[in-house]
Design a protein that fits this description.
Helix content: 25-40%
Distance between the termini: 23 Å
Number of helices: 5
Amino acid sequence: LDPHTNFLPPNIYKEFETETTGEFGGIGIEITVQNGILTVISPIEDTPAWKAGVKAGDKIVEIDGESTKGFSLVEAAQRMKGKKGAKIKLTIFREGFDQPKDFVIERGTVKIKSVKYQDLDAGYGYVRITSFIENSASDLEKVIKAHEKKYKSVKGLIIDLRRNPGGLLDQAIQMSDLFLE
């Protein structure tokens, strides 16, 4: 398999499956581990983390007072998920901060809309694909059909995949099938 493929034990797979349905309990951030440091790839728009001011590139140094040093991605994700309404304290270091700052965030239901469309007029459209989750391909197809209906054709389409952490391979393939034979 390719270097972007991971084996997921059953308990982790169940958790991954929950995330890729597009709705789960948590704070709404995409995370990675860079140089051993838990780092925010991006907050998901309109989620508790987004509203609290968490930004791309933030380094999460503690979760509820516990150092994140040596945490795997899975360990960090498990600590951040939880019941709606339960609070979590993230201690974040950001470029420009003199010292780490605490962000207290109330968990909510995180709904992910992975396909975001903007009409650029005159037959042109902009689509941002934030992740490949359960309905991404059908959502993209709906957006394109609505655009075609309005303009009778598509003169141009910008597909923005920046900061997309990946997801379900079958969704990425189905999206590609909309454009390729």
